[in-house]
Design brief:
Largest sheet: none
Radius of gyration: 23 Å
Number of domains: 3
Helix content: 55-70%
Strand content: under 5%
Amino acid sequence: MTTPALDPARLPAELRARVDAEAGGIDALADAVARAFAECPLAVPHDALAAHLLAHAPADEPLAAALAALRGGELLLALGCGRGDGPALAEFERRYFDEVGPALARVRTTLTRDEVRQMMRTHLFTPTADGAPPRILAFSGRGDLRVWFRVLLVRTLLNVATRGPKERELEDAMMEAMVDTGASPSDEVQRREYGPILTEAFVEAVARLERRERSLLRLAACDGLTVDAIGGVYGVHRATAARWVAAAKDHLAQEVRDAVRRRVPVGEETLDSMLAMADGAVEISLRAHLQTGSGEAFDATVPAPDATLPARQPPR
């Protein structure tokens, strides 16, 4: 397939500015478009693919290197599916829907294979109820599309399998988890007094995490993925994934402490006692908040090899 010359004037203004700002930018973009079509020859407008590639190229890297690091053919396939292109949809199913069987073997559900396939078609390829673009367009192109689909598929099945008739409120989940039948009356008083404070602090702490940290904790706490599986999602070694998850948990714990301090003037000993009391509720609370309390898109962006999570401000 011959790639026609790209016209920068047809790109959105903010993307065109980036191409114009770098020497050889238009040539690097044309090369990336040509590589993508060589890997996946679909009838998608070239300018649309060029804009899609630019939108997913990390802004903090030189354009040529950022485009070269993208999985262009898979981004082209995702774009075609998001545009409702029949051959693209058929190719996606041919390549990746064989993941449905193994996923059903891992997650206990009453859904049949055909029902799951149809559910994933709707979940991936149609606009959301609030008018947002199809979810397939959220694929970043910086990891394997098969792994991305596998994680999304398993998460979707887990959500179906564990969804109750009515989702519990976060405070109810925390208070239930904090109940200890062997506790003294004074302990129970403390639980009832501090429970709402801890709930508010926890919600605030989760909101203060970086989006990637919330995604990591959602994979670990809500979806039960091992560090090996999380490493596969991000394309990094299991030790790096384990370090990221541990860092996200440490950040969450520190944010909870800071949020409690902002609400009640307690000493370190009392604060430690409050947090120890709620320790058993943290995982349940994390699941309740990250899984049912947020419509946030999953962040599977990958930083530089062996990088740590973004630097944080010191505790306030």
